[in-house]
Design a protein that fits this description.
Layout (H helix, E strand, L loop, with lengths): L1 E2 L6 E9 L3 H6 L14 E9 L2 E11 L10 E8 L1 H13 L9 H8 L5 H12 L3 H11 L2 H25 L10 H30 L1 E7 L5 H9 L17 E7 L2 E7 L10 H16 L2 E7 L5 H13 L4 E6 L6 H7 L6 E3 L8 H13 L13 H22 L4 H19 L5 H9 L6
Parallel strand pairs: 6-8, 6-9, 9-10, 10-11
Antiparallel strand pairs: 1-2, 2-5, 3-4, 4-5, 7-8
Helix pairs in contact: 4-5, 6-7, 6-14, 7-13, 13-14
């Protein structure tokens, strides 16, 4: 049993119970009807009472096994959203024999009862945590079984070959081959191509799930804080003509094209300053730059020369930092004159942060730089680090199978390598698990789900 809605005052609160005694427990608190004889997928209005004490007027929903989220008898009590009232109902249920659920226990039971596999179960947590349209679509794709279906098809085909190879061992004296080695070669190549594609998708999946940290770097008075305000379309950072105004980093989150960017406005970088606080801010700026997924280097186009910009580009390339050069303050001399000044450089975005000129072009370039192509949410995008590690292990095992085929290994050794492939596939979908692993996976879920 758990409160399935967020804690705090609200119009409604939902308490969920699952298990063999779920209906019987609530029935003892709901004198309006005999819930145990009511049909599945029915709703009932009435008072919840603890003895003679009326706790709340509620709607009780009944879902009988196996037609429920968990595959067990499941009851949801929808009451008024007072934390005090909801806690009273929870205490009354505990008195009748219920216990509080562990984080993710409802979904864990759904997995154990065969309502979903492990990939689909983890996608539930991803959907709850989704904060952009792309992360939502990626999670829904996995909940609908997109990822699982790809893996299950591979697993079934490998199981067939493994069975045929092991059958050959029973007829080793006759020297017969039941498994067509050419077809196995083809299957391994197909499986490896799918696996490699899924592994490659994790870079994008990590961006979708965790977002991008983008550090806004540059000299004092280059317009970094103005650019932050322009990207956010609000006055978040203090802007001043005095150099060194920003002494510490300011972080804000913005959704650009379905990707969450964590913008970090940093102190202006100048190598020589006598201000102790400003020096500390500069040091922190350099640290943020090295940690960021993307750096927006902002400079005043009216005060920079080609040699200086070439040196900056060289430094970023040497440090292998992904960056965009943002030529700011084009409103002073005009856009055409500004572009002529640095015509040799192609990787430049010309903006006027103060007048919001070309800010949308900068946002598009940020998306393009990070994604390096379109996001195909209809295809599988791996967002889970556990899946990524298992896929890497699967890739290595498939290479061993291919090498075994090339080296004409005997069937018993080839079968061992195929079984390793099956093991790593089963780890992802949940055919192969242990209790500790499941407890760890579902402990990351919210309580009530």
């Amino acid at each position: 049993m758990a409160l399935a809605t967020p804690p705090g005052v609200s119009a409604l609160g939902v308490i969920r119970l699952s298990g063999n005694d779920a209906i019987a427990i609530v029935d003892q608190l709901f004198p309006s009807k005999n819930l145990e004889v009511q049909p599945s997928h029915s709703m009932h209005v009435g008072m919840i009472k603890d003895g003679d004490n009326i706790l709340d007027e509620t709607v009780v929903s009944i879902f009988k096994n196996p037609r429920s989220y968990t595959g067990e008898d499941l009851v949801e009590i929808s009451g008024h959203g007072s934390p005090y009232i909801l806690q009273q109902i929870i205490d009354a249920c505990i008195k009748k024999g219920a216990r509080m659920a562990k984080p993710g226990e409802f979904t864990q039971r759904a997995f154990l009862n065969g309502k979903m596999d492990l990939v689909e179960a983890e996608a539930v947590a991803d959907l709850i945590a989704s904060n952009t349209s792309i992360s939502q679509k990626a999670a829904l794709h996995n909940i609908r079984g997109g990822f699982s279906n790809q893996l299950k098809e591979l697993r079934e085909r490998l199981i067939r070959f493994s069975a045929l190879i092991e059958l050959e061992l029973d007829f080793s004296q006759e020297d017969v081959e039941f498994a067509d080695r050419k077809q196995l070669y083809q299957l391994v190549d197909e499986a490896d191509a799918v696996t490699a594609s899924l592994i490659d998708s994790f870079r994008l999946g990590n961006v979708i799930k965790n977002g991008i940290s983008a550090a806004i770097i540059g000299k004092p008075n280059a317009g970094k804080s103005t650019l932050l305000n322009g990207l956010l379309n609000e006055e978040r950072a203090i802007v001043s003509e005095l150099p060194g105004t920003t002494r510490d980093t300011i972080e804000e989150v913005i959704n650009i094209g379905g990707i969450q960017f964590r913008l970090i406005d940093t102190a202006g970088i100048r190598r020589h300053t006598t201000d102790v606080i400003e020096s500390a801010g500069v040091k922190r700026s350099l640290e943020k730059m090295k940690q960021a997924d993307l750096v927006l280097y902002v400079f005043d186009i009216n005060t920079i020369g080609e040699d200086e910009l070439l040196e900056i580009e060289k430094d970023f390339s040497n440090e292998q930092i992904k960056y965009l050069l943002v030529a700011n303050k084009i409103d002073i001399e005009g856009e055409e004159k500004s572009k002529e000044k640095l015509s040799k450089f192609s990787n430049l975005i010309f903006v006027s942060a103060i007048s919001l000129q070309h800010i949308n072009d900068l946002k598009e370039k940020m998306i393009e730089t990070v994604l390096q192509g379109k996001v195909q949410t209809e295809s599988t995008i791996v967002t889970n680090a556990r899946h990524f590690e298992a896929l890497r292990a699967l890739h290595a095992a498939l290479l061993d199978v291919r090498k075994g085929l090339t080296d004409k290994l005997p069937g018993d050794l080839l079968s061992l390598d195929i079984r390793r492939c099956l093991h790593f596939l089963g780890e992802i979908t949940g055919e192969i698990t242990n209790e500790d692993q499941l407890d760890y996976i579902f402990s990351k879920f919210c309580i009530g789900k």
